[in-house]
Model the fold of this input.
Amino acid sequence: MAYFPKVVRIVVVGDKSTGKSTLISAMASDSFPATVPPLLPPTRLPSNSFNDSVPLLLIDTPSSVGQQGKVIEELKRADSVVVTYACDDIVSFERVSTHWLPQLQKLEVKVPVLVVGCKFDLRDESRQVSLESLTTSIMNQFKEVVTCIECSAATLYQVPEVFYFAQKAVLHPVDPLFDYDTNSLTDRCVRALRRIFNLFDYNMDGTLTDQEVNEFQISSFGASLQRSDVTQIKTLVEQNVPEGVNSLGITFPGFIGIHNMFLKKGRTETFWAVLRKFGYGDDLKLRDDFLPVPSKQASDQSVELSGATIEFLKGVFRLLDTDKDQLLRPAEVDKLFDAAPESPWKDAPYKDAAETTDMGYISLNGFLSQWALMTTLDPRYSLANLIYIGYRAKPSAALRVTCRRSEDRKKQKTERNVFQCYIFGSKNAGKSALLYSLLGRSFSNNYTPTTVERYAANIIELIEGTKKTLILREIPEDEVSAFLSNKDFLAACDIAAFVHDSSDGYSWKKSIDLLEKVVNQGELTGHKFPCLLIAAKDDLTPFPRAVLDSVKVAQELKIDAPIRVSMKSGDSNVYVKIINAAEHPHLSIPETEFMRKRKQHQQLLHTFIFALACLVYSAPDLGKVCR
Done:
């Protein structure tokens, strides 16, 4: 299956004479070998060895101190590790916890580990190593140990079980599902089960009726349940989880209880069969093959929410807004994402990137802006979260890819609904104030330098009544060169704004330096976009030379004169001007000295090529000249 590895690589380690090679040989031949070489070559078991139809590659390892480098190399490539000891050798058993398991931790081998007692048929009954004591002491101390088992290659006792459990630990891991510290399912596992529960709770009453339970069974395992089967399941759930059943059916705690029973019975493969059926990978996130994100053919395309998806999100907002105040509280947003692996907006770049009230409540515009931002920056993540919150339409229709910006430039118009504006400028020029004002936040005189890029997104209503989403991306001055070293950094830029403090001559000069640097890089990498000059802090006394220079420079660059704004007075018209400029991708593209020289060079080159072609076509036939 696509979510399984092509082969499971099991590395067997342990002290000398603990039975490593004999164990592998017995498994491969289904018999006890009379003799075995000191070190077996990699041994491949066919895919039909166990039910999951995945081949195993068993790796024997040397015991000599001089070859420990080889052991370390193999361990770092392992999918699963078997650590052996001899049941008739107490020292080898003690070295499992004093040497081998600490060694794995030191090497940061983060794979399932099985502790296997070999030579079970030879152990001294009077000095036997108790499997029970092994299980309690070692598994409590080393969380990576998933199973302890004893076997005998001589009698083939539990030899297949060793490698079955080693494979099972890889294909159907317990750790993502169960937290041994809390003795309960992991938070991410509960969230995944909640989404699956919600898919079958058609009337959204918090319970699964007998019919809904049966439909879950059919979807998960391809087989229906008899009425008596459902009754038996409900009885069993009620015995283990009293609140798991009510008069309407099985509640979510009961649904959790059913899956807890799978774990207690060691049926992790059944648990994972359910999760994988509904698209989950080992990290309990939706797999990429479950997320058909439309492909961009060029880097200057963008991805947006489709119209139908926006209407779906509006409906979700109305459903959550139970008090009809046109706002969602943080707790209501958390509830929206209770079936997602985590709430996606709690960390950068989405945290504080949308308009909220002082209490942290988010409006419909802020809600839709967050989704637009997430779709722009990470379409796959956005699609996954749409599915987590209950989007049931065709996933491939949830998002749309825009035309290339270069094509929009030729057509002299664009059909984009979301525009990303890169904000450049010197420190303390007023860049952050632009972002804060877009989010409706009050102006503050407190200045904190921006050290990492950040975003702000909101919906802007234009004069003709249409609405567009504007995303501002603030680029720290000290990071511009690092960002520009990525040739596709400017691909997502629909429009660039260069901000300067109108009262500071240095800030003005720096903004022009940055403009030339950015635009020239765009010319070299094939990314052209409109540019605006923004003279911030218009409430302060302007720097005289900057005012005169700005008009002259704008004329030389063939772009509009600087837009004068004061965020202290709450000037929001600047955002409409940014959108208007972005809607005309063929205009406001600066022409720097570098670009003029480059254009002249290209024109001379074309003239030379044309003249050379004319010369070739007008020349006499060389063959006739030779004769």
Summary: The two ends are 73 Å apart (CA to CA). The chain has 22 helices and 20 strands.
